[in-house]
Amino acid sequence: MNRADLIQQLAAPKTYDMAVIGGGATGLGVALDAAARGFSVVLVESHDFAKGTSSRATKLVHGGVRYLAQGNIALVREALHERSTLLANAPHLAQPLAFVMPSYKFWEAPFYGVGLKMYDALAGKAGLGATEFLNRDETLGLLPNTRRSGPGGTLKGGVKYWDGQFDDARLALALARTAASRGALLVNYCAATSLSHDQGKLVGLQVKDEETGLRYDISAKCIVNATGVWVDQFRLQDGQALGRDVDAIVAPSQGVHIVVDRAFLPGNHAMLIPKTTDGRVLFAVPWLGKTILGTTDTPRHDLVREPLAFKDEVDFILGESARYLTKAPGPADIKSIWVGLRPLVKPQDSNVDSPGATQGLSREHTVLVSKSGLVTVTGGKWTTYRAMAEDVLENCFAAHLLPAQAGGVTTELRLVGAQAMTQKISDAPGIHLYGSEAAAVQALPGADRMLGGGLTEAMVRFAARQEYARTTEDVLARRSRMLFLDAALAKSLAVEVSELLQQETGADPALDEFLALCDQYRHLPD
């Protein structure tokens, strides 16, 4: 992806059918859906694609077992349908994963098992595998590091069920590149700075190339605000232009994840604890050769790009893990700590910030169309990104911002790199994550030169040439997932990656900023 060519296209006078602000899961999904229907589309992202929440998920493609417990049947049914669609359209990046729920009280297995059987029933033909009741030995066989004596007594057995897992940042990149293959123009490191109105109607926006500081005007018939936890920024700007008061709709929630060695969760099964000491869910998930522990759900109001974990969040995850794992990780075992902000939607009758816990706020998405025509979408989750995009398009049609067209165009649209897999996402990272593009990567210089952690010189060159990578962080955090897997290893590779990237792009790879970020991802909160 030659950036000069992208900027030249951006600068050319043109009125697009749709302009999308935000290059996370939602914005990229909208851009792909619109481009697949034949609309002209431009998308701008102020940082890198999936830089925010969309690269910091729990890596699960799921219907939402806890949403079933809350009685939100419609959300679960939709998510289960979308789960199967995602797994079919990106098999190199999303695959089935078996979960085991250990039971230490006599009632737990039958109680949760009945709910999971309902989960299977809602999935129907889209199911990934039948729920099974396990005895004690079977549970220990699948989760060998599980405590034989834990909360509530001795291990009685467990329940095994199926969901999916994925590589979130690389899936976002696949969406971007697939949209580009359908004619969309996507530019990262290009921030939307202001909206343009004409007689009360939204007609475009001004953007700034973050690398050069140059500004460009974009004209569009329809503008979609898909900036996640930051959507209220543009909603407020839109309201001010029209002389109207606008209430914030997002109550951000912070989710913390800890990464440790695979030795703490041997095998290919994930562990789910449905109810911890404070009522939250705890996951232990095998992912790219490591184990992810999480997540928390804590209200947060400062919308920083790189939020820090709170000490009590890290203590909670480690403490709960120790209640269920014979060999439990401690602070010294942490390879990386990463934090994401979820854009939870406030109840529509509430005009004030949510003062308490965020676990009860809706995980469903919301689409709003302002008087000027600004289409805002927020909330939701990765699994349902495609359905969210279709809903956005339907709202654009209903508001007469675009001519109506039939939906379903992305239901069977396989993403760039899609092919049948022989390796699992839970395995160590490697060339298999490129799917059908593996041969193209291997054809580049440095294919046999391993830098470390499964990353080769050729992968860095491919990231720069084909995957929009501009900085060291882009490569080591999102094209490769090194920062999220082992921050110390990422730091050790940063100088070499930076040099290769500069050879390819001629741009400043922001090495010093990335080295500081590596320290943050290893930092234990005081």
Q: Can you describe what's shown?
A:
It is a single chain. The protein has 526 residues and is α+β, with helices and mostly antiparallel strands. The chain has 3 domains: 3-53 and 169-249 and 349-398, FAD/NAD(P)-binding domain (3-Layer(bba) Sandwich); 76-165 and 251-344, D-Amino Acid Oxidase, subunit A, domain 2 (D-Amino Acid Oxidase, Chain A, domain 2); 431-522, no CATH class. The protein is built from 16 helices and 22 strands. It has helices at 3-11, 25-36, 65-69, 73-89, 108-123, 136-142, 168-181, 231-241, 311-324, 385-398, 438-442, 457-466, 472-479, 482-485, 487-505, 511-522, and strands spanning 15-21, 41-44, 60-61, 94-103, 132-135, 149-150, 153-154, 157-166, 185-187, 190-198, 201-209, 215-225, 250-261, 270-273, 282-287, 290-294, 298-299, 336-345, 365-369, 374-379, 450-452, 455-456. The strands form 4 sheets. Strands 3, 4, 5, 8, 13, 14, 15, 16, 17 and 18 form a 10-stranded mixed β-sheet that branches. Strands 1, 2, 9, 10, 11, 12, 19 and 20 form an 8-stranded mixed β-sheet that branches. A two-stranded antiparallel ribbon has the order 6-7. The longest helix has 19 residues, at 487-505. The protein starts with a helix and ends with a helix. The model is unreliable at 349-361 (pLDDT under 50).
